[in-house]
C-alpha cells in the first residue's frame, strides 16, 4: 500500500513516511491566510490543525508614508501596464506595500516562499499582485520568480498517478498546500509536493489562468 505522508505547512514543508499497511498518503497542513502576516489582525487558521508557535503572526513594523508619497490611486494609468499572469514569491519574507515605492506603508508580510500570486500591473520595478484570498498590493519585481507553483483549494483532493479519475491515488492533499507544477492540460495538472508527484484536477488548484495549458 502507499505510505502516509504528513506535511506541516510552516515556512518550509516537512514530510514523514508511515507504515506500509496504512491506506493512501495524506498531505496535510495548516495555512493561516496562506502565508501572509498582518500588523493589525490575526487571520484564522484554515484547518483545525493548531499552528506551531513559530507560525504565529508577527506584527509588521508600522511605517508612515513619506510626505511626497501619493495615494496608490493617483498613479498615472499611462505608466501602468496591465499584464495579468501568475508568478511565485521568491523569498521567505516578502513585503506587500500600499503602493509602488518604499515610501508606501507595508500592509502584509508574506512568509511562504513559492506562494503563487497573480500579477495585475507593472510600474517601474514594482508589480501589483493579488493572492488567492483576493488581497492586492505592490511588491518589488526581484521578490518574485517565474517558476510556477499552485495552491490546493477546496476540499481534500486526490493526487493520482495518471490524469484520469480511474488512476491509482498516490496521496490525499488538503487545501493550503503549495506545490510546483510541471504540466497542465484542459482538465488536469501534474504537480509535485515534496517527493510525491502526480496529477490533480485543475479545479482543485489556484495559480492558473482560465484555459491556460503548460506543456
Can you tag this structure with a few keywords?
single chain; 18 strands; mainly beta; 38% strand; disordered N terminus; SH3 type barrels; 215 residues; five-stranded antiparallel beta sheet
Averaged pLDDT, please? 74
Sketch the topology as an H/E string, one letter per element.
EEEEEEEEEEEEEEEEEE
Number of helices: 0
Rough outline:
elongated
Radius of gyration using CA atoms only: 19 Å
What proportion strand? 35-45%
Q: Uncertain runs with pLDDT below 50, 5 residues or more?
A: 1-21, 39-59, 61-81
Give the strand order of the largest sheet, numbering strands 1, 2, ... along the chain. Answer: 10-9-8-5-11
Helical amount among residues, as a percent range? under 10%
Q: Based on DSSP secondary structure assignment, what is the total number of beta strands?
A: 18
Briefly note the structural class of the backbone.
mainly beta
CA-CA gap between termini: 31 Å
**Main beta-sheet annotation:** 5 strands, antiparallel
Amino acid at each position: 500500500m502507499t505510505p502516509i505522508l504528513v506535511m506541516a505547512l510552516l515556512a518550509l514543508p516537512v514530510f514523514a513516511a508511515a507504515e506500509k499497511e496504512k491506506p493512501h498518503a495524506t498531505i496535510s497542513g495548516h495555512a493561516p491566510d496562506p502565508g501572509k502576516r498582518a500588523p493589525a489582525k490575526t487571520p484564522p487558521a484554515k484547518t483545525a490543525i493548531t499552528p506551531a508557535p513559530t507560525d504565529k503572526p508577527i506584527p509588521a513594523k508600522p511605517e508612515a508614508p513619506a510626505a511626497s508619497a501619493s495615494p496608490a490611486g493617483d498613479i498615472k494609468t499611462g505608466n501602468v501596464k496591465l499584464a495579468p499572469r501568475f508568478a511565485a514569491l521568491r523569498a521567505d519574507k516578502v513585503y506587500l506595500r500600499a503602493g509602488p515605492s518604499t515610501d508606501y506603508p507595508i500592509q502584509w508580510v508574506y512568509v511562504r516562499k513559492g506562494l503563487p500570486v497573480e500579477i495585475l500591473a507593472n510600474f517601474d520595478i514594482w508589480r501589483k499582485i493579488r493572492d488567492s484570498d483576493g488581497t492586492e498590493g505592490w511588491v518589488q519585481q526581484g521578490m518574485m520568480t517565474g517558476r510556477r507553483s499552485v495552491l490546493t483549494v477546496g476540499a481534500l483532493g486526490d493526487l493520482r498517478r495518471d490524469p484520469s479519475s480511474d488512476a491509482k491515488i498516490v496521496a490525499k492533499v488538503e487545501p493550503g498546500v503549495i506545490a510546483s507544477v510541471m504540466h497542465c492540460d484542459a482538465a488536469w495538472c501534474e504537480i509535485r509536493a515534496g517527493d510525491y508527484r502526480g496529477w490533480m484536477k485543475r479545479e482543485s488548484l489556484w495559480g492558473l489562468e482560465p484555459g491556460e495549458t503548460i506543456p
